[in-house]
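Consider a concrete sample entry:
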Amino acid sequence: MSLCLRCGSWKQAPAQRCGCGFAPSPGSLDEAKSYVLSVQFRSPEALRECARAIRAGEVLSFHEEELKLAQRIGSWNAAVTGSFLLSAVFLGVLIGAVIARSSLWAISALGVFSAISLTIAFALTRHVARKVQAASAKGAAKSRETDT
């Protein structure tokens, strides 16, 4: 879950188009801010406060470190998505070859490529999750420091 940067409404994913029509451009600062306004970076309570502030027209402040990490996460998400798409295309081609020829090499290549692609995609996903957890902990510590 995340917040729309423009209207403060809830949406499923940071890069998703909101009901108000706003969709952050891939790789933009707005996309990074949208990732920071998600449960990966902020607690639900903090997000509710951010939603209230956005709806009231207040300007939110973002930590530079959070934005840098969020931009990397956006590019990693694109890489993971690309990996899955490439796997799907390759699988489709190989399945067609298997159906057409029932070639043993095609079946073997299909299994090997699928395993490698999925391993890479899942490794990237785990890496992103660890980075988000670390940034969340660091951001929470900074918030506590600035609040006191």
